[in-house]
UniProtKB/TrEMBL annotation, chain A:
<feature type="region of interest" description="Disordered">
    <location>
        <begin position="410"/>
        <end position="445"/>
    </location>
</feature>
<comment type="similarity">
    <text>Belongs to the pescadillo family.</text>
</comment>
<dbReference type="GO" id="GO:0070545">
    <property type="term" value="C:PeBoW complex"/>
</dbReference>
<feature type="region of interest" description="Disordered">
    <location>
        <begin position="480"/>
        <end position="685"/>
    </location>
</feature>
<dbReference type="GO" id="GO:0000463">
    <property type="term" value="P:maturation of LSU-rRNA from tricistronic rRNA transcript (SSU-rRNA, 5.8S rRNA, LSU-rRNA)"/>
</dbReference>
<feature type="compositionally biased region" description="Acidic residues">
    <location>
        <begin position="501"/>
        <end position="537"/>
    </location>
</feature>
<dbReference type="GO" id="GO:0000466">
    <property type="term" value="P:maturation of 5.8S rRNA from tricistronic rRNA transcript (SSU-rRNA, 5.8S rRNA, LSU-rRNA)"/>
</dbReference>
<keyword id="KW-0539">Nucleus</keyword>
<feature type="compositionally biased region" description="Acidic residues">
    <location>
        <begin position="555"/>
        <end position="587"/>
    </location>
</feature>
UniProtKB/TrEMBL annotation, chain B:
<comment type="subunit">
    <text>Component of the NOP7 complex, composed of ERB1, NOP7 and YTM1. Within the NOP7 complex ERB1 appears to interact directly with NOP7 and YTM1. The NOP7 complex also associates with the 66S pre-ribosome.</text>
</comment>
<keyword id="KW-0539">Nucleus</keyword>
<feature type="repeat" description="WD">
    <location>
        <begin position="437"/>
        <end position="478"/>
    </location>
</feature>
<dbReference type="GO" id="GO:0070545">
    <property type="term" value="C:PeBoW complex"/>
</dbReference>
<dbReference type="Pfam" id="PF08145">
    <property type="entry name" value="BOP1NT"/>
</dbReference>
<feature type="compositionally biased region" description="Acidic residues">
    <location>
        <begin position="41"/>
        <end position="82"/>
    </location>
</feature>
<feature type="region of interest" description="Disordered">
    <location>
        <begin position="1"/>
        <end position="119"/>
    </location>
</feature>
<dbReference type="InterPro" id="IPR001680">
    <property type="entry name" value="WD40_rpt"/>
</dbReference>
<dbReference type="InterPro" id="IPR028598">
    <property type="entry name" value="BOP1/Erb1"/>
</dbReference>
Length: 685, 787
């Protein structure tokens, strides 16, 4: 007979360990344990059966996987922590004695340096693993790069974060791997695809961050320490993978002048032409351009001769070449409605590289320079200039430069004459040779496109150049949409017109609701201000209509009034009593109709079929739909009756989610409908 | 110290210098100064000046008037002036502001103004300049000539115009003279009067006249404090009994002793430089020269270390991560939605109520941590104030939150719902009562529709079997089988070639070919089938020892009365038969008589007129028995289980456990794989024989016991049950050949019509062979056709 098994010696009880026990086992302090867990990426677990693990008690406890903790026992960092503790003791003693010099010496020489290389390798055995986990690292480092230094955040850390993030941005620019970006109220989201991994990060707007409240910067600092190491190695790998020298040259002077991205100079054979040209090189470029032009001319002449000889053959060859050169995937369009759509990979890096390539941009001084510079360069533009107060590294700081094709402006247009005339340029100083500077609000340069910053984002997300007139300065911008949300079936899609999304009869139902609002003024009053606001917004937006005081009438009221009028007329014309028409049930209506027919027959007259008013038709169709829906519901109930209890519960859970989604979508549609109605009303007036 | 305990006026009267200085110390501030100076005016010149100023001012007061009499009594005026001055000097209380410059000019005349020569100096030069021995200018001052009788025209006018009479004349008057306007000059207050006034004022002990800045109350000082103050003003140390200049005490004598303590002479090493030190120094010098010892340089900051940090490819030899089920990577944050945009479509913006609701909810409980807001331009977007907080919370989640792999509930809810055939698809099924067959006295126990579907046979408590035309309800044929026993079961033989009805009344089973009802050839073939067995039974009456045993049944002719009607065979068994069921081929039929233990189930062979008892002993009370529609399998229902036997192998195949307390009846699906069971405990059970021995569905829709159940045998997916609550229930029960799919059961219709008599409702039910019609036998003495 085998021995009786003791409880709690195997299985789940052994597989999990509480945090207190883990800390005791490792013989370190709780903060050290926390640091270790952050570095090693060890997280608590939720055992399937809590009672089995904690000997019957169900108190809230944190459990770790025992093997994780065992694995920590061999961690070299543990020794470092202990060393650090002993040195800290020595320093404390020295300070207690007032031997400041000794303490400083101890701190300088004896404090062990923590290296996290091996942990990076351990946690991310392959490079792709590291890329997969880069989201949080990038968001965190971009945040810290924008924070002011304080007692918790040393300047050195911030500088390191800035350097690493800029290096990463440079890689994204050079490799053209940025895919999407989104202006949210939290900050700017970016998404890059590197080696098949989608990496999304969030960069805050450049404002002073609110760091008050219970935020423990020691924890964040630990994360930042780990993430900087990670991003450093990732950067190294990324740079070397495209043949760049990793720590790119860092120009301290340029950085001090606000060069940001421009303070780094990439080196490597593959990238000489990808280097963003600065204004200093323009002279050379011009010189070489002249030479190039001559060469081109000669070649062209030669080519012309040859073309004259063999025109047909070249044409043939060219077409062939065209076909061959085009290695991009063709887009398959379905010809029929009901066909399945197979997914195809989206825009490749070459497309990204060519989006803004032919343009020269100029950023006005009120635009956010850092994100625009990054985006424009990542999407192929090599010539981005800005006002000199925005910092160093611009392609040009001269707004009147004739090569500029696009100017990004975030200032409203002002009516003519509202601006004071620019101070007259003293002729003696400039000698009349310098043309007067073209400043945006006063004058526009012909041939230059002026757009608001959102244009850049929307172009990127849609992968094509959009009409710039929609984004002209001072224009009412189209809504900015998240490129990541793909509305599923049953969800609201703001891109589609409302008619395509509304289930049958919903529009009528909404209108009915609005119409009903006339009767009970209470509900109307509640909703009225919101509607009012929206209406006002709509009115303000519409430039062709003058915003008047008398436009406050809700559209629904108008409609219903008109309808009532129609009805009255119709009633008079018909001569039948039809009060409370809508209340009459179908059966009753039928009966009456029959009665009428009988009467007509008795009188010897043929009864002309009663023409129906629009409203009647509407209500009829709605009623039909309602009936249908009711029947469907009944069917569903019947089906549910046949289910087992377990399945019924499961169904209930699923339906909760879908119901919530449907409700949300319906709410959005209702709002949209209301806005559209308001807009229509505004247009009508 | 005595003076401090006394009142202040005492110190004022004390003539001694000591006490006056003492009082100066105590109260030497502000107004009090003047009062004290009053006591020393006789000895000091400074106060003299003060008084003279007063006098000169008084003189000026009447100088214009004095021009009249100045010619007459210039000298007297002088004298008077001096006298009055003296008097006033005695009486004057205080003048805190010394007007020295005015006094100089005014007192040019008086003899006591000798020291005020500087004032005179400014008027004319009273020196001659010569050169001294060094050649520097030297001032030689003239002898000062005091001019007593000045002819200054604007001599001070007299204030007291009493003329040249001694003042003593006025001693008895309250005034001392007259002014220029003839008004009395009143005698100023004397010392005694002041004393008397001061006596009347009581000054508290320790009064200083100051306010304590700390408390705002009058400052009072104790004696000790005053003592300390006094010492401080004297530049003495405030401590009691401290001697600032004590006598010097010598620590050692400056004398040299004659006898030294040691007689040893001074050693030489005290005078010779050390060789050892020289050696060591030389060593260091040599090392410095050779460059082994470098001058100290502060070590440079190790800044380059960071640069070195990421200088190698850590993934140079990368391996794929080994799959581990316990490794759960951190979930990524979801991408932002439309409502997070800085300029979302207007329908995403919250209206007022939503906004208020959002603001009202606690920050932790908000569904969304942000409120969708629209900004017209990018420049108007403010910073997001929860940014750091959110990142911090993400950090906490990463290392503090337990990670659980949760399966996404990615089931299409439609797939969960059973696929119900649409109501149209379910359609033909009986809905209304079409015909009522009346005629039986008492309950109708059983009924059956013949295989051609034109006749209905029924048997009831009155012991008769009646045959009706199904479509019209007309009774075509009847026969009274028994007087006292009820007809418990009637069943048509299921073959179309001949119409044979089996009916059971008590212990007898009758096989009937109804006379003059059917077409002659069918009638004849029925008679042939029944008659064929007579020969067989006669040829083998008793061959091998069966005679010893009583045969289980006797096949006889029932007698001419019944034979004329068409009742051709009577089979007598040992106990009363309740159930008859035919084999589908019509050769065999099984009877069940629940009371007869070993003879409960009998199988009768029609062609041989032979009765067999397949079970020697049966566990439990037999309730019903059925043949499998296609296989040689025989089902027997006992009180709470159903057993199936393989007849060819003669063995038990399966025991079904419906879990019922008392099975009333059961029926086998024409496919043979499904069984429905009706029970007296109100349940209808569907058994899938392939699935399990437990029921696949348990239906409880009846209020009373279920008496009979029946499948439609003609190809429609219908079944029905009859209950004591007087209702029939029709179900759709579709069985698909596919083993993966379960049978679909849909309740269709409840048919009510039968009346409940003495707690019995519907006794039996049978389906039409082709049409969706069913017939029920009721305890109210009627049969009903439903279509």
């Amino acid at each position: 007979m085998g021995r009786i098994k003791k409880k709690g010696t195997s299985g789940a009880a052994k597989n999990y360990i509480t945090r207190t026990r883990a800390v005791k086992k490792l013989q370190i302090s709780l903060p050290d344990f926390r640091r270790l867990c952050i570095f090693k990426g060890i997280y608590p677990r939720e055992p399937r059966n809590k009672k089995k693990v904690s000997k019957g008690s169900t108190a809230a406890t944190t459990f770790y996987y025992t093997k994780d903790i065992q694995y920590l026992l061999h961690e070299p960092l543990l020794a470092k922590f202990r060393e650090h503790k002993s040195v800290a003791k020595k320093i404390g003693r020295a300070l207690g004695r007032g031997e400041v010099g000794d303490a400083a010496r101890l701190e300088k020489n004896l404090i062990p340096k923590v290296k996290l290389d091996h942990i990076i390798k351990e946690r991310y055995p392959s490079f792709v693993d590291a890329l997969r986990d880069l989201d949080d690292a990038l968001s965190m480092l971009f945040l810290f790069a924008n924070l002011p230094s304080s007692e918790h955040i040393p300047t050195k850390t911030i500088a390191l974060c800035q350097r690493l993030t800029h290096e990463f941005e440079h890689f994204v620019i050079v490799s053209h791997s940025l895919r999407k970006s989104f202006l949210s109220i939290k900050g700017i989201y970016y998404q890059a695809t590197i080696q098949g991994q989608d990496i999304m990060w969030l960069v805050p707007y450049r404002f002073v961050q609110r760091t008050a409240g219970d935020i423990d910067f020691r924890i964040m600092g630990t994360f930042v320490e780990f993430y900087t190491t990670l991003l450093g190695f990732v950067n190294f790998r990324l740079y070397t993978s495209i043949g760049l020298v990793y720590p790119p040259k860092f120009n301290v002077k340029s950085d001090e002048e606000g060069g940001e991205l421009g303070a780094f100079q990439l080196e490597g054979k593959a990238i000489t032409d990808g280097e963003p040209a600065t204004n200093g090189d323009v002279a050379d470029a011009i010189a070489s351009a002249e030479a190039q032009a001559e060469v081109d001319k000669i070649i062209a002449n030669a080519a012309n001769e040859s073309i004259a000889d063999t025109q047909d053959s070249t044409a043939l060859v060219r077409t062939e070449e065209d076909e061959e050169n085009n290695e991009a995937i063709d887009k398959f369009e379905t010809t029929a409605q009901d066909a399945d759509v197979l997914p195809q990979p989206q825009a490749s890096s070459t497309e990204a590289a060519s989006l803004f390539a032919p343009f020269t941009f100029y950023l006005s001084r009120e635009t956010p320079r850092a994100p625009l510079e990054f985006l424009l360069k990542a999407f192929g533009s090599k010539r981005v200039g800005w006002d000199s107060i925005l910092g160093d590294g611009a392609f040009t700081t001269d707004e009147s430069d004739t090569t500029i094709t696009h100017q990004i402006v975030d200032r409203p247009t002002l009516p003519n004459g509202s601006l004071p005339d620019p101070p007259p340029v003293p002729e003696t100083v400039h000698g009349g040779a310098v043309p007067p500077k073209a400043q945006w609000p006063r004058s526009t340069v012909p041939g230059r496109t002026y757009v608001q910053p959102q244009w850049v984002w929307d172009c990127i997300n849609q992968g094509k150049l959009l009409r710039p007139d929609l984004y002209a300065p001072g224009a009412e911008l189209p809504p900015h949409l998240s490129p990541w949300v793909k509305p599923k079936k049953g969800e609201y899609d703001p891109n589609l017109p409302l008619e395509q999304q509304e289930p049958e009869g919903e529009a009528e139902a909404f209108e009915e609701e609005e119409g009903d609002g006339d009767g009970d003024s209470v509900s109307e009053d509640e909703e009225a201000p919101a509607v009012q606001e929206l209406e006002d917004a709509v009115i303000d937006r519409d430039s062709s209509v003058e915003a008047g005081e008398g436009m406050d009438v809700a559209s629904a009221e108008d409609d219903s009034d008109e309808e009532e009028m129609d009805e009255d007329i119709a009633n008079e014309w018909e001569g039948f009593e039809s009060e409370g028409e809508s209340d009459i049930s179908d059966g009753e209506a039928e009966r009456r109709q029959h009665q009428r027919e009988l009467e007509a027959e008795a009188a010897g007259v043929t009864l002309e079929s009663k023409p129906k008013t629009a409203k009647e038709q509407k209500t009829e169709s709605r009623k039909k739909l309602e009936k249908k829906r009711k029947q469907e519901e009944e069917d569903r109930e019947r089906q549910k009756m046949m289910l087992s209890r377990r399945k019924r519960k499961l169904l209930k859970r699923i339906e909760y989610g879908t119901e919530k989604r449907d409700k949300e979508a319906e709410n959005l549609r209702r709002k949209k409908r209301r806005i559209e109605n308001a807009k229509e009303a505004a247009n009508a007036i | 110290m005595a003076p401090y305990s006394r009142k202040r006026k005492v110190t004022a009267h004390d003539g001694s210098a000591d006490s006056s200085t003492g009082s100066h110390l105590e109260l030497g501030n502000g107004l009090l100064e003047g009062i004290l100076s009053h006591s020393e005016d006789e000895s000091e010149n400074t106060s003299d000046e003060d008084v003279s100023i007063e006098a000169s001012e008084a003189d000026e007061g009447f100088s214009d008037e004095g021009d009249l009499d100045s010619d007459d009594f210039p000298d007297e005026a002088e004298e008077d002036e001096a006298e009055i001055r003296n008097q006033i000097r005695n009486l004057k209380t205080s003048d805190p502001f010394p007007h020295t410059t005015r006094a100089d000019e005014a007192d040019a005349g008086p003899a006591d103004g000798l020291e005020d020569l500087s004032g005179v100096e400014g008027l004319k030069r009273n020196y001659t300049v010569t050169t001294d021995a060094n050649g520097n200018p030297r001032y030689l001052y003239q002898e000062i000539d005091p001019v007593y009788d000045s002819d200054d025209s604007d001599a001070p006018a007299t204030a007291n115009t009493i003329g040249d009479i001694p003042l003593s004349y006025y001693d008895t008057y309250p005034h001392i003279g007259y002014d220029i306007n003839g008004r009395k000059i009143m005698r100023p207050a004397k010392g005694e009067a002041l004393d008397a006034l001061l006596d009347s004022i009581d000054i508290p002990k320790g009064w200083t006249g100051l306010t304590d800045p700390a408390t705002g109350k009058p400052l009072e000082l104790s004696e000790e404090e005053l003592d300390v103050l006094k010492k401080l003003t004297r530049n003495e140390l405030p401590e009691e009994g401290y001697d600032p200049y004590p006598d010097m005490v010598y620590y050692f004598t400056g004398r040299e002793e004659i006898m030294p303590l040691s007689a040893a002479p001074e050693p030489k090493r005290r005078f010779v430089p050390s060789k050892h030190e020289a050696k060591r120094v030389m060593k260091i010098v040599k090392a410095i020269r050779e460059g082994r010892i470098q001058p100290y340089k502060a070590p440079a900051e190790v800044e380059e270390e960071d640069r070195e940090l990421y200088s190698y490819d850590i993934w140079a030899d990368e391996l794929p991560r080994p799959e581990h089920s316990m490794h759960i990577p951190a979930p990524k944050l979801p991408p932002p939605g439309f409502d997070q945009s800085y300029h979302p479509p207007p329908e995403y913006l919250p209206d007022k109520t939503e906004k208020a609701a959002w603001l009202e909810t606690d920050e932790e409980e908000r569904e969304k941590e942000y409120l969708p807001t629209s900004y017209e331009a990018l420049r108007k977007v403010p910073g997001y104030d929860r940014f750091v907080k959110e990142k911090f919370e993400r950090c906490l989640d990463l290392y503090l939150a337990p990670r659980v792999r949760r399966n996404r509930l990615n089931i299409d809810p439609e797939s969960l719902l059973p696929k119900l055939p649409s109501p149209d698809e379910l359609k033909p099924f009986p809905t209304t009562c079409a015909t009522i067959f009346r005629g039986h006295d008492g309950r109708v126990r059983s009924n059956s529709i013949d295989p051609s579907g034109t006749y209905l046979a029924s048997g009831g408590d009155d012991g008769t079997v009646r045959i009706w035309e199904l479509s019209t309800g007309r009774q075509l044929w009847n026969a009274k089988l028994s007087v006292e026993d009820a007809v418990d079961a009637v069943r048509w033989r299921p073959c179309k070639d001949a119409a044979i009805l089996a009916a059971a009344a008590g212990e007898n089973i009758y096989l009937i070919v109804p006379f003059a009802l059917l077409s002659p050839d069918i009638e004849q073939s029925g008679r042939d089938i029944l008659d064929a067995g007579w020969g067989y039974a006669a040829s083998k009456p008793s061959t091998n020892g069966v005679a010893t045993k009583e045969p289980p049944a006797k096949w006889t002719r029932p007698g001419t009365r019944l034979e004329d009607k068409g009742v051709l065979v009577q089979i007598s068994v040992r106990s009363s038969v309740k159930v008859i069921n035919w084999h589908r081929k019509g050769e065999y039929f099984a009877t069940v008589s629940p009371r007869g233990q070993s003879t409960a189930v009998a199988i009768h062979a029609l062609s041989k007129h032979l009765t067999q008892l397949p079970f020697r002993r049966l566990k439990g009370l037999a309730q019903s028995a059925q043949f499998h529609p296609s296989k040689p399998i025989f089902f027997v229902a006992t009180k709470n289980s159903i057993r199936s036997y393989d007849l060819s192998k003669q063995e038990l195949v399966k025991i079904l456990q419906p879990g019922a307390k008392w099975i009333s009846s059961f029926d086998v699906h024409p496919g043979g794989d499904n069984i429905i069971v009706g029970t007296y405990d109100k349940r209808l059970l569907w058994h899938d024989l392939d699935l399990s021995t437990k029921p696949y569905k348990t239906l409880r829709y009846h209020q009373e016991a279920i008496r009979a159940v029946a499948f439609h045998q003609g190809g429609l997916p219908l079944f029905a049950d009859a209950s004591d609550d007087g209702s029939l229930q029709i179900f759709h029960g579709k069985v698909v050949g596919d083993l993966m799919e379960n049978a679909t059961i849909v309740p269709l219709k409840v048919l009510r019509g039968h009346q409940v008599k003495s707690r019995l409702g519907v006794m039996d039910i049978d389906w039409h062979c082709r049409e969706p019609w069913c017939v029920s036998a009721g305890a109210d003495g009627t049969c009903r056709l439903w279509n």
